[in-house]
Amino acid sequence: MDKFLVRGGVPLEGEIPVSGAKNSALPTLAACLLTPEAVTLRRIPDVRDVRTMLHLLQLNGAQAERREDGSVCVTAAEISRPEAPYEVVKTMRASSLVLGPLLARTGRARVSLPGGCAIGARPINLHIAGLEQLGATLRQVHGYIEAEAPQGLRGALIHFDRITVTGTEDLLMAAVLAEGETVLENAAREPEVADLAALLVKMGAQIQGAGTSTIRIRGVSRLHGADHTIIPDRIEAGTFLIAGAITSGDLLVTGCNPDHLAALIAKLRQAGVEVRRAGNGRLRVRGRGRLTAVDVVTEEYPGFATDLQAQFMALMTQADGISFITETIFENRFMHALELVRMGASIRVVGRQAIVAGPRPLSGAQVIASDLRASASLVLAGLVASGETVIDRVYHIDRGYERIEEKLAAVGAQIRRLV
Ligand code: EPZ
Fold first, then answer.
1. Is the peptide bond before 82 cis (omega within 30 degrees of 0)?
2. Which of 249, 270, 323, 387 could disulfide-pair with 293, CB 3.0 to 4.6 Å?
3. What are the extents of the domains in the chain?
4. Does residue 123 line the site of ligand 1, with CB under 6 A?
5. Which atom of ligand 1 lies at the shortest distance from residue 372's CA?
6. Same fold, 3-16+232-418 and 25-229
7. CB 81 within 8 A of CB 110
8. How far, in Å, is the centroid of ligand 1 from the Cα of 290?
9. Is the CB of 116 under 6 A from ligand 1?
10. Does the domain spanning 3-16+232-418 belong to CATH 2.60.120.1140?
11. C-alpha 162: how far from its chain's center?
């Protein structure tokens, strides 16, 4: 079980590159199932969840491999097994992203229900309800969703009870081959949704409004191959901005899209961190020692991202004053708080709110990562803590960050992987 050893106290300085977005890679890879022709995807990060998705596509019968130049090519000429088995889904709940494409392409799908996960129940009832509105019949049997649409899918007006990112993506991929028009109302506006739509349009889909709350799709009979470069990872970029701030460093985050980070940048500036655009796809962040506590409420995009909540909490442990952090998206996304407290932070969790009192000096400790973004939070805390921090179960962080310890070490962090 890999661990990270982090020795704190070094201001990070230099250029740190951002990889392609994991949460864009997963839906765009699933979209390759919609055509028998070859699809090339570029800037796909080499992270565990991507490897899991490539394995799943191969299980479905597609050819899916990474080329020498780093691009990924998927050809789903035949889909011999329209299924996402439990063994795969239990390691990555985003496997449910193949439900819509398999149903749209083959008229059937058998996808294991995702178990719960550390941050919440995370049901897929809204995915299922939407697919039923498109004319599919779905039933739950032995922990699997068995879906059928023998006559194909028909367009419908679908209003999401609550905003769901992969729910929007699943239904978008189902609708592009449905007969007639589909309207998705109260759709997710995340940049990853718009990126998926951009790929689908290159494949021949007819989509308007992706990236807004209302998406209109006119179904087509067939999609063709395409070549697409996915967007940069805004959560990785945000994590690095916070790393520069928490170590009072001077970092140039390169290869990012600053427009996707407006909510975080505003909060960092309110807290007294200097964040400036520094040319194409580059953000310069400078911590200037004193930090002011600010409140954060996580919201769907373009609000403050829930995936940056844990990382921002680590920063607030060093800020002067009281920070109220409210998590509105998931019901159990404060596990990192308990580990931060073990490092010396003053944090009280009351329901959906964490109350952080700072500044508190952190001291290195042995801590355990519970989920992907919590592990990033612990790395950030280790970078500012005195002494050594050993973070266990870093396989969580490998799910969504490409060689994070190498990237951080290259800008001065004292971090290394213990195998
Ligand atoms: C996506 O998860 C991301 N994952 C998550 O990133 C991210 O935290 C989340 O969106 C919110 O931004 C991917 O894109 C692969 P939701 P998703 O459906 O789609 C409830 C990371 O760290 N809900 O938008 O699963 C759900 O329980 C990961 O990279 C239903 O009730 O999230 C949650 O409370 C973690 N029924 C809320 O909606 C449904 O059918 C938002 O979930 C679907 C969701």
1. no
2. 323
3. 3-16+232-418, 25-229
4. yes
5. 22
6. yes
7. no
8. 34
9. no
10. no
11. 18
Contact indicator for 415, 24 with CB cutoff of 8 Å: no
| 160 CA to centre of ligand 1 in angstroms | 13
CA of 312 to the centre of ligand 1 (A): 19
> What is the atom index within ligand 1 of the atom nearest the CA of 371?
22
Q: Indicate whether residue 97 lines ligand 1 (CB < 6 A).
A: no
d(CA 111, CA 343): 41
**116: pLDDT strictly greater than 80:** no
pLDDT digits 0-9 by tens, 13-24: 999 999 999 999
Catalytic, 256? Answer: no
Whole-number Cα distances in Å, 361 to 24, 28, 93: 37, 43, 37
* Entry field: residues in the chain: 419
Ranked by mean pLDDT, the top range of 59-63, 92-96, 110-114 is: 59-63
HSE value, Cβ hemisphere, 13 Å, CA-based, for 118: 15
Q: State the DSSP string of 172-184.
A: HHHHTTSBSEEEE
Which residue has its alpha carbon closest to ligand 1 atom 22? 307
Q: CATH assignment of 25-229, given 3.10.290.10, 3.65.10.10, 3.40.710.10, 3.40.50.2300? A: 3.65.10.10
- pLDDT of 140-182, one tens digit each? 999 999 999 999 999 999 999 999 999 999 999 999 999 999 9
Catalytic residue selected from 32, 73, 117, 256: 117
Give the type of residue at 196. Answer: L
Q: Is 222 in the pocket of ligand 1 (CB under 6 A)?
A: no
Is 333's C-beta closer than 6 angstroms to any atom of ligand 1?
no
